[in-house]
Amino acid sequence: MKKYLLTxxxxxxxxxxxxAMAHPIIHHRAPEFLPVIEQAREGLKWLFKxxxxxxxxxxxxxxxxxxxxxxxxxxxxxxxxxxxGKFGERWGQICKAYGVEADVVNVEWGQAVDPEKIKAxxxxxxxxxxxxxxxxxxxxxxxxxxxEIAQIVHDNSKAILVVDGITGVGVFDLPMDEWxxxxxxxxxxxxxxLPPGLAFIGISDRAWKLAETxxxxxxxxNFSKELKNIVKNQxxxxxxxxxxxxxxxxxxxxxxxxxxxxxxxxxLLADAxxxxxxxxxxxxxxxxxxxxxxxxxxxxxxxxxxxxxxxxEKDFGIRIANGxxxxxxxxxxVAHMGYYDKSDILFAxxxxxxxxNKIGHKVTPGIGVGAAEGVFM
Amino acid sequence: MKKYLLTxxxxxxxxxxxxAMAHPIIHHRAPEFLPVIEQAREGLKWLFKxxxxxxxxxxxxxxxxxxxxxxxxxxxxxxxxxxxGKFGERWGQICKAYGVEADVVNVEWGQAVDPEKIKAxxxxxxxxxxxxxxxxxxxxxxxxxxxEIAQIVHDNSKAILVVDGITGVGVFDLPMDEWxxxxxxxxxxxxxxLPPGLAFIGISDRAWKLAETxxxxxxxxNFSKELKNIVKNQxxxxxxxxxxxxxxxxxxxxxxxxxxxxxxxxxLLADAxxxxxxxxxxxxxxxxxxxxxxxxxxxxxxxxxxxxxxxxEKDFGIRIANGxxxxxxxxxxVAHMGYYDKSDILFAxxxxxxxxNKIGHKVTPGIGVGAAEGVFM
Lengths: 377, 377
What we know:
2 copies of one chain form a homodimer.
Chain A: E1 4-5, H1 15-21, H2 34-48, E2 54-57, H3 61-70, E3 78-83, H4 86-97, E4 101-106, H5 115-124, E5 130-134, E6 136-137, E7 142-143, H6 146-156, E8 160-164, H7 176-179, E9 183-187, E10 199-203, H8 205-211, H9 223-230, H10 241-257, H11 259-279, E11 294-298, H12 305-316, E12 318-319, E13 321-322, E14 331-335, H13 342-358, H14 367-376
Parallel strand pairs in A: 1-12, 3-4, 3-5, 5-8, 8-9
Antiparallel strand pairs in A: 2-10, 6-7, 9-10, 11-14, 13-14
Helix pairs in contact in A: 1-10, 2-10, 5-6, 10-11, 11-13, 11-14, 12-13, 13-14
């Protein structure tokens, strides 16, 4: 059976990227690697829409998240974290591990944070050094209002705004410099169409200034050391060479398509997915601000979402994701970030209709697909 | 021109490994990934010769080194580090970054540590919690006497012995459990014949016991969290999936060859390399205990080693490495760990003879190659 991966990371790899990574290995200090990393550097600045360097780390996205705490704060510093899902929760866990006082703004799963709540925290604690949020909370499929938050943060404090864009960058616009995002990070295995193993982090001048005062311990994720290296097209420690070669190819693909077209494609696929599942009588988990990265959907009343996930894998070779933690068994998550097109959505919706009928949720065959076709037409 | 990589990491990738990694990506929580990671787990235990779990990290080897400090020690703890080159120096830097008191045993570059010096430190500071050494110091091509050190450490203290086996594991025998190595770590891009991006770390029961008392901060490199995951064939954070698929293939190749044959091949290639360069009138940088992983060689008197390295790259497509820091310009380093065979050594020696003659160090054509042939015959 043909296999399809519609999970929110890892995502499908384009054959061009697979081929590029199958290139014989080259040495990271060799002259032929320098243009590879230089091209990746330039491409990442282009993608992050920043004049500053974007660091390349050999780790998963969580490593970059840790570094976004340890390189900028000191023990006892105060931070605001937004916890509206599993990844927002992680910001708080990292702060705790390093003795940073995190004021957690709790947001009900499935909802976006109200920027006014962040404003209130900043008023309450004017010494807050940093605000940690997600662009998309991957566990719920919700987009947080990054632009408004950036405005509020800079109007009301001297704190830096740190955005986990792991399932945001390359899906929708997050122009770092224009919006005043101080730190923006992402991972390789999402919209960047690569295997997991790389993380990327862009850092504003204001954040670099704060970094000078940071006393938290760090070694592998030492960003000032990375900065000194990246300007020479190097990394502080041995880079994940084959993945960086793949990165060159995936950035090239994004440039060929045009970044605005990339965003438009994601908008279209997400819209079609949402209208498709809603036409089947299903409800979105995101009660507001659903992300264009992935669509989280409630299973029909009385049906465990795991049953849908198993059946669609078994009958159609499509892998989608279950909910995490409190949402496990209640929702399924269909991703459409990265190397996806209309075909994937139409097929997945058709398969879902068949599977839902099979397990007892009656759906008129074609009703969801038809709704998606409507979006595409 | 055909290209050859004889650097001490990254090393050449077998086509079988490249092909395995070009497999379409699979999801790390999918049932088809579980046997992949399970096989890797078993293979790593086999390679490390330990009954305990070997953790799989998405990072370069330095990440595992950092974790080997932060997961076992607390601020103000005392450790002994052996600094006989760039990587030994790194142990001291990591300790310093985390407020661990490192008693540094300095060893002249090119020499192995005298185990009696470690014994003396342990007598002087009986509260030492850990000893940090390299199996091979990659910057000098020297092997430290791990077995004797393990004996001394356990006879004279309750400290744990931590061995950076980044250029050791898979080259020569480092049986963790038998020798009493408490922590053994390595990276993917050396004898394991993979691209960089993975690190592996085996941990003894005694080290796990010490970990319970550790209060240094950690998050991404949290080994107890990784242990809870690896026993379920998972990792704490998204693993570098494609590299782990490659790992399955490279471990399979090592098993097919037989681990004792792998060690014998490395011994033979190293011996031939050493005899070859010595027959050309060159001197080994390792004045004692040269490693079977790589051979570090002094450039002829009055010749910058960089000239040899450039010429052999330009004329023969062979990339070898320069010395690092104080050895830069003085030595060149030829690696023979991983996917290498007699052909590579014979060709590299012949090319070196031509290049040396070209740049003014007269060598009888065939004299080095002949010496290597002698070893192979």
